[in-house]
């Protein structure tokens, strides 16, 4: 039973569960005496862990905006209030460009994030130019 009087559910248990204890890695000194044939698998595992941690840390936090739409050049240009010519010229430098074969598309969510970052911030005085 929960403190508010309702029955405990599996969702409540998930909310109150403690995070798993990190894996215990061997001390650095142990690597100097480890057999050479075990070093490559250890290095690969550590690299995979590093990528997984970096990906998790870089993932956006907050609400999920749902599935992303890939916009045509004309639609993206209208959203950015730029010409299609400008968009074609700058596509390789824009973080929301998606190339699939010879097709050029633009992530709608990426454009919105880009525009949100381009707005002047009166606190730091830095403006991002399109």
Low-confidence stretches: 121-125
Mean pLDDT across all amino acids = 77
Q: What composes the largest sheet? A: 3 strands, antiparallel
* Topology pattern, helix = H, strand = E: HHHEHHEEH
Beta-strand fraction estimate: 5-15%
- What would you report as the Rg, rounded to the nearest angstrom? 24 Å
Distance between the termini: 56 Å
For the biggest β-sheet, the strand order reads: 1-3-2
Describe the protein:
The chain is mainly alpha-helical. It has a domain at 70-118. Helices cover 46% and strands 8% of the residues. It is built from six helices and three strands; from the N terminus they run H-H-H-E-H-H-E-E-H. It has helices spanning 10-16, 28-31, 36-58, 73-80, 84-90, 108-118, and strands at 70-71, 97-100, 103-107. A three-stranded antiparallel beta sheet has the order 1-3-2. Strand 2 and strand 3 form a beta hairpin. Helix 4 (73-80) crosses helix 5 (84-90). The longest helix is centred in the middle third of the chain and has 23 residues, at 36-58. The chain starts with 9 loop residues before the first helix and ends in a 12-residue tail after the last helix.
Outline the fold blueprint.
Layout: H1 10-16, H2 28-31, H3 36-58, E1 70-71, H4 73-80, H5 84-90, E2 97-100, E3 103-107, H6 108-118
Antiparallel strand pairs: 1-3, 2-3
């Amino acid at each position: 039973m929960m403190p508010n009087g309702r029955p405990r559910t599996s969702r409540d248990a998930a909310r109150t569960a403690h995070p798993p204890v990190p894996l215990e890695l061997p001390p650095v000194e142990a690597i100097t005496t480890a057999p050479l044939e075990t070093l490559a698998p250890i290095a690969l595992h550590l690299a995979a862990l590093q990528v997984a941690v970096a990906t998790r840390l870089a993932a956006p936090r907050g609400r999920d905006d749902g599935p992303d739409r890939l916009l045509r050049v004309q639609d993206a240009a209208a959203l950015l209030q730029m010409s299609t010519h400008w968009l074609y010229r700058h596509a390789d430098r824009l973080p929301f460009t998606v190339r699939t074969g010879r097709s050029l598309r633009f992530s709608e969510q990426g454009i919105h994030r880009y525009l949100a970052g381009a707005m002047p911030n009166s606190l730091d005085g830095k403006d991002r130019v399109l």
